[in-house]
């Protein structure tokens, strides 16, 4: 079976300044990868590349066997909406929309509004969000609740891949492990592979594979060496 | 989805948005108001006189003649002699003439001395005749037909007593109180200066200006000195206006009559101006030349339509300046809106990153900012229009009574809609700038948000 994510000889530079240079990296289906990325390791660039927002100057990025640079920007946006769920460290939601509207906004871009009417209920149940919370404005929720809503939204379109960018950095330490467990459990149930980027090594134990981005990225590796 | 998202996003920033909407509403109000005022003034202007082919007065500027004969503004600088009036009236091409005599007032309203023919021939709007709302036309001396506004404001009814003052100021110290007039008729509103006029017969004007000892007053005879004062008042102190002169000795026959039995046939020796109707309008230019080259007296004939448009052109300067200011106010408020959108971009960077993450294309961001600008401008424009409509509905009467302007409700005409469309599209164009900036940023920065 093809890996869900496969990078080969990817090079990316910001205005002639090399940011990322990855020989090879891949994520298998169902795999949960902890990507250790301190700031300056090219983390944001990698995420933007994986999501198809940026395209590399050289090399190939295949997501679900789809070569991202071979399709147009609009198609990449639709591809992302449909197959990749993204969770940021904070401010995942539009604060002026209700929780329900936030989740359905993702459905709008993924063109999945009409499927399975009780799907929203299932997803929110999995993330321990009660139905009263659905009607509240996202901005009124606590950070922990907001992050759970973000997971619900990321999973709503049945994506094959979840990309989480430091989703726990705004959480208290007790909540942190709890959140990561819940996230992984839900991804398991929805058969989504996970790329979890963090600079907090203490979370690495939850994952089946660990990878340091600094080592993966030849640009930073050379600096280190 | 796009619209409800834009709405929710605007509502989230309601304070700044409402202020921006208000500023656009005010500028819309000004732009539409200025335009509407211009149109209303122009139509109110051109409807003041109709059916009159030529206005003849003593030689002066055409505008001045038009102003005092039609708009009751200013004063005649000179009069036409009765002989000239008679001669012109008897010209073969003339169908009718109406003499008008100005110079007196009643509580700030002008008094117009004329004949019954005035009500027959003077037209306004689209050849509409003057219509009596109540009572009847004056038949004899010391009877008055008042305009609708005069009756309304001063609470006059048929039978009310009216004392006419000498001169045209709001406050006059010379009252013809020996000869009170009685209101015999009230005219229906016309929306022209006729509403603000007290009409009396030409002979009444002569009667009240008769020398006191010759009109059998009920009050004691005046001393010689007071009579001289009166005379003095008429001739030199009142320099800004020329009044039809008192009868000379030839009209002694009104002596010894009681005040209600004054002679109907008192002939003035001059009138302020005359309205002329021709048998055929084709001859109007020829007749105008004839008037202007009249040998016996320096006269001026004006064609009302031509003089009106000349006067309007003069006022056009002020109107253009007003329109320019209105446009500048509009531009200022539009820049304000752009500033508001730009200022909100910082906080919206996260919003944009979220939208991008869930699969929105960068052009979605551009669209949403454009849409917000258009919604703001639309709300402002509609609010401004409603504001103007409300203000005109509420203050229309006050404007009419205070300034004599008849301002109707703003029609939802093509020109109004054009202005509204202009405002909205201007907003759309100006919003392209912040929208394009966000678009660029959305493309370049992607999911990473600067914290």
Automatic annotation (TrEMBL), chain A:
InterPro entries hit by this protein: AAA+_ATPase, ABC_transporter-like_ATP-bd, ABC_transporter-like_CS, ABC_transpr_LolD-like, MacB-like_ATP-bd, P-loop_NTPase
Organism name: Lacimicrobium alkaliphilum
Keywords: ATP-binding, Nucleotide-binding, Transport
Organism lineage: Bacteria, Pseudomonadati, Pseudomonadota, Gammaproteobacteria, Alteromonadales
Pfam families named among the record's database cross-references: ABC_tran
Protein name per Swiss-Prot or TrEMBL: ABC transporter ATP-binding protein
Nucleotide-binding listed as a keyword: yes
Domain ABC transporter per the UniProt entry, residue ranges: 5-225
GO molecular function, one term: ATP binding
TrEMBL record, chain B:
Region (Disordered) location: 211-261
The organism's taxonomic lineage, starting at the top: Bacteria, Pseudomonadati, Pseudomonadota, Gammaproteobacteria, Alteromonadales
InterPro entries: ABC-4/HrtB_transporter, ABC3_permease_C, MacB_PCD
Bias (Polar residues) ranges: 215-226
Domain MacB-like periplasmic core positions: 18-206
Domain ABC3 transporter permease C-terminal: 324-439
Bilayer-spanning residue ranges: 15-34, 321-343, 364-396, 416-437
Superkingdom in the source lineage: Bacteria
Membrane topology, as annotated: Multi-pass membrane protein
Pfam (any one): MacB_PCD
Protein name per its UniProtKB record: Peptide ABC transporter permease
Keyword Transmembrane helix found: yes
Organism of this sequence: Lacimicrobium alkaliphilum
Claim: Transmembrane is one of the keywords in the record: yes
Compositional bias (Basic and acidic residues): 227-261
Compartment list: Cell membrane
Keywords: Cell membrane, Membrane, Transmembrane, Transmembrane helix
